[in-house]
Amino acid sequence: MSILNFRRKPAPADAPVDATLAHFLEGHSIEVMPRTAAKIENLADHLAPGTRVYIAHIEGTPIEDMVTTAARIRAEGFEPMPHFPARIIKDRATLADWIDRYQSEADVKQGLILAGGVADPVGDFDSSMQLLDTGLFETAGFTRLHVAGHPEGNRDIDTDGSMKIVTEALLWKQKYAETSSADMAIATQFAFEAAPIIDWVDSLQQQGITLPVHIGIAGPAKLQTLIKFAIACGVGPSLKVLQKRAMDVTKLLLPYEPTEVLSDLAAHKAAHPDFGIEQVHFFPLGGIKTNAAYAALHMNTDSQTADIQG
């Protein structure tokens, strides 16, 4: 039996839905790994038809597992978008092989092109720009290419705490997008506060970077889980939102939900229609089912469960 069947229904009187937030969440994407997707018997029970599903490629994951997951996602009615992390791809021939396998076995047409979190590259590639420069994605007919963004910077790249290198990289990708046949967008790291996200998106537009932003949001999860992931992923000053919550004993054991940051961003987008955020991208750190139920609840989507911790 489906947990979510995604029919619109009137919100219960005691649980009004924020229409601005519901609109902001429309078309959101979600990220999985082969091992997390394998825990879900049928993704169609939890995700809206056509949802874009990113597939994180963690170092050590065999390409066979990635392709199998992409094929399953496609077969169940969703749009697979595998990661292509430059630093775990040995050479041009390996990249060409991956692209061919994704396309021939899973009809993949989209990819997230990024450097990856590995400190030492395994081969010829060190950056997403080098992957794009091969021309292999466009030759293969990819219709959409996403690149990484960091609303609070990335100290692995800009060790001085500035945004100089990451901004220069986005300027390069903006120029690439202007000649590319593929639709492009920036998919970002998650953050926990709207103000720095708004400032960053506005600063991109001021610098001539007009690629639409798919803003990364950490889905509902235990506070301890979120803090662990946030530190590991290098989340910046907005981490203080979680740290402040952790100091409140009454909230320590309650699951974190991203409603405040999402509502603030949604309100800003509604007041400024040209604001650069185009979609929300969820990192389901508390589980795919939990994240899907949360999104359904806030989009006024018919659900057979009100317990988002399921």
Automatic annotation (TrEMBL):
Highest rank taxon of the organism: Bacteria
Keywords, alphabetical: Oxidoreductase
Presence of keyword Oxidoreductase: yes
SUPFAM superfamilies: FAD-linked oxidoreductase
Molecular-function GO terms, alphabetical: oxidoreductase activity
Entry protein name: Methylenetetrahydrofolate reductase
